[in-house]
Amino acid sequence: MKKKIAIFASGNGTNFEALAQACADGRINAEVALCITDKPGAYVTQRAARHGVPVVEFRPKDYDSKEAFETMLLGHLKEKGIDLICLAGYMRIVGDVLLNAYAGRIINIHPSLLPAFRGADAIGQAMEYGVKIYGVSIHFVDSTLDGGKIIAQAAVEYEGSDREELESMIHAQEHELYPKTVARLIENL
Ligand code: GAR
After folding, report:
1. How confident is the model over 126-138, as pLDDT tens digits?
2. Which atom of ligand 1 is nearest to the CA of 171?
3. pTM of this structure
4. Cβ of 153 less than 6 Å from ligand 1
5. Could you tell me if 129 and 47 are in contact, meaning their C-beta atoms sit under 8 angstroms apart?
């Protein structure tokens, strides 16, 4: 049976799209079986609908604690038989409930060459710093912000100052690297 992936996203979902498309056309030998968002109505939910992927939307503030909403999420993940969790612009730190249940099976993509520029607006942080080699990292998730062992990285050389141009170069690299990395990981699960 095909392995099952859940994608967690908080926003636009272009990385969701890249992974779902790669599963649909066989570049990843798995199925995207669940989309989870902490931002009800985020554009990623429309992408999920187009791919026929069920969505779980929740508002963290409706729960007493991270433990409470992660326990709810774990129920959905188990029900669908999820093997791998891919964070794709999920702007929250993952807690112990999910980390313990999916040890070594939660990965994240981040738009910098980690460990530099963790957290929100990594691209803006790097531009501000004046870096000349930007990049993308994919890493195992631990309990720290954008921390955990790195699985794959790609560099993006850019010396200009056009943020839009740089963002589109970095996103293009993300959309290539994430499917490739997931394809490789899924074979070894
Ligand atoms: C991506 O650039 C991803 O690397 C970043 O959020 C963006 C989501 O875009 N993630 C982080 O910054 C995690 N700290 P998308 O919604 O279009 O996939």
Report:
1. 999 999 999 999 9
2. 2
3. 0.98
4. no
5. no
